[in-house]
Structure formats: C-alpha cells, structure tokens
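Minutes, structural biology subgroup

Action item carried over from last meeting: produce the structure token record for W2 domain-containing protein (Coprinellus micaceus). EB confirmed the sequence was re-checked against the source entry. Recorded below for completeness.
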Amino acid sequence: MASGYVNIRRDVDDKFYRYRMPVLTTKIEGKGNGIKTVVPNMADVARALSRPATYTTKFFGCELGAQTSFDEKNERYIVNGAHDADRLRELLDAFIDKFVLCRSCKNPETDLIIIKQGRNEDIIRDCKACGERTGIDMRHKLVPYILKNPPVKVKKGKKKDVAGADAAVGGGEANGGSGEEQNDGNESDDYLTKKIKAEAAELNDKPTLADEDWSADTSPEAVKARIKALEGSMAAAVLGGDDDGSDDDVNSPYTILGKWIDEEREEVDDPKAFSIAIFKKAEELGIAKKHKTVTVIAQALFSEDMVTEVTQYGALLQKMVTSEKHQKALLGGIERHVGLVHPDLIPAIPKVLMELYQIDVLDEEVITQWGTHVSKKYVDKDTSKKVRKASEPFLKWLEEADDDEEDDE
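Output recorded by EB:
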C-alpha cells in the first residue's frame, strides 16, 4: 500500500511546493458481483483539497460508470467494482483540475460557490489566492450531485481575524491535558470566540515589534517587483503574505535556493564551508534576511540524520535565525521535513528541539507556544498534531526546568 504525501498538482515536480495531500490508497473487498474498491484515506485526501469526500467518491463513480456508497460518520468510501489504485489517482488528478484548481493561477486554494441566476445555477471556484472567480464545466455528471448537496457554508464566526488564532483553535490535543476545552475541528462560534479573545489578550500583552520589523518590503523596487508578479499571474504569491514571491513558484528565489542546496549537499565534505556557501547563495538571491529562507533551508538541508546535522549547521542557523518570526519559520520547515518527507523522524523531534534550544537558535517561549498550538500554516492539521504530540517530552522538560529555577529562588 502506498503511503506518504504528494503535491496536489502532481505535474509540479517541486518538493518545496506548499500544497500537498496524502497518496490515495485503495483496498479491494468482496468477490464476484459483490467486489468493491474501498478508499481508506479518502477523507484525508478530501480534507487536503478542502472538498467533501462525497464529491471525490461520486466523481470516481461518474467517470468509471460505477455505483458508489459512503458512510461519512465512519469515513468509509466505496466504489463498486475492482479498480486499480493508479487509475483512481489519475481520476483524482482530473477532479482536482476540474473542481479544485483556480483556472487563472492554478492554485488549489479555492472554495466552490453556487450562484443562482434566475432559475439557473452556476458553480464557480472562488480563489482565495488571486481573488479570481472561475467557472466549472456545468455539463459534467457530478454537477447535479453538487447542486443537490452544496458545500457547507462557513459561518462568519469561524473566521480567524486575530493573528495566531488559527494556531490556537484545535490545539487541545497538543496541550498535554492542560484542562483547556477540547476541540475536534468542528468548532462552534462560542468556542472560537473564546479562543480568539483569549489569544488576542495574550498578544496584546506581548511586544509586536518582531512582526512589524519583518513586514512586507515596501521599497519602490519591491513594489515594482510585485506589480510585475501580478502581471505574470503570480498574484497568489504576493497577496498570500509572502515577502518576495512564493515557494510555490518554480522560479522564485526560495525554490532556486532549495533546489541548489538539495543538489549540492550530496557532495558536502565540510559542513562549515557549505554553511558559508549557503549563506552567500541566499545573499546572491536577495533573501538572506527573509524568514521564509529559513523554512526552505530546514527542508532542503536536513536528511534522515537531522539530529546530528542540526549541530553541524548550528552556526548557519544562528546567523540566519534573527527574530521570533525566523524561529517560527524554522519550526515550520522542520514540520514539513519530518511530517511530510521523513515521518520516521517524528519521534526524534524532542532531540531536535533540544539541540536547537541548547545552541540558542530557539527560545523557550517560542517553542512552548509552537508546541501547544496546532497550525495548518505549513502542514495539514493531522500532521501538525502528530509533530507537536511528539514534542511533549521536551515541553515537559522545559516546564520542569522553570519550576526548578523558581524553587531555587
């Protein structure tokens, strides 16, 4: 059975591509006329696409001319007949192209919206990246099902308009039994309101200069670059809050740096010399001071021997991680590296955090906030929970160390 993650756009051969989904898996059950294909992780795949799992299942049925059935409560999705996993993955690519990707910028960050015009109804893809609204082929056999079973509308109360609130929501599992209200992701408005207000209160008590210092570059040169990017249909990257483009763009400086590190590290004999070369390359690309650069380095530089490599490249990290935002970006890159590329490294997270803490790359407050607040910024929510769950032994050690210091006083 296949496992792991792939780019949502499988035509994008870039391991730094932000949008990823689990590899679709299948299981054949039954015999004869009762044979059927079960998709065990259909719900996880659909969540990564922000579409109901019933849509993808029905799409398979429409394309294969097969009956489908599903039990949403138990997340069991079935297509009648025996179907090869590779064939279903190809059909999933077709579904993504027809019902997920923005026709304008090809970004998967879209919502399906049904618009009524008199007696007619149209389904459009509303892109949260570039702002474009593009239609779908209303002749497809799946369309009647979508119109009868429209996407669930998100209530306004669920919108997270306070910095960091998205990380606070859903963080109950990673809080290590702290007594906070638990949440399974189906948040009520009251629950969200409480969490957002609580987070806002904490933020108001903390300095915000770190974030302001690293806001988007507003120099004339940067503005011209943004305009050029918009004209080249790169609005998704600029409007998405990036500094200098996006790591989703194969021509962005971040992707260039990541691929360069990935190619060059195979020949590395001297980590110190390679560290200097990486920094000079980042300077050459104009992104040496950008926090996203640290995310890319964490993904491209480290291998399965990450614990040892953190020490070897400690000087590079100390030089490049210069703010709280950089620290969070580094943790995000580590999340992607261990969560999506090397899931076998998740149990080693406490050791990685310890090494980074001991060489003063990560602060205690940043680690604690990250470890107790699940976020979907860098990986999917489930992966985020797994990584933070694995960090609990180190978080406990930090807490006990603080208690010891207070007792000494």
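Discussion: The longest strand covers residues 110-117.
Next step: EB to file the record with the rest of the batch.
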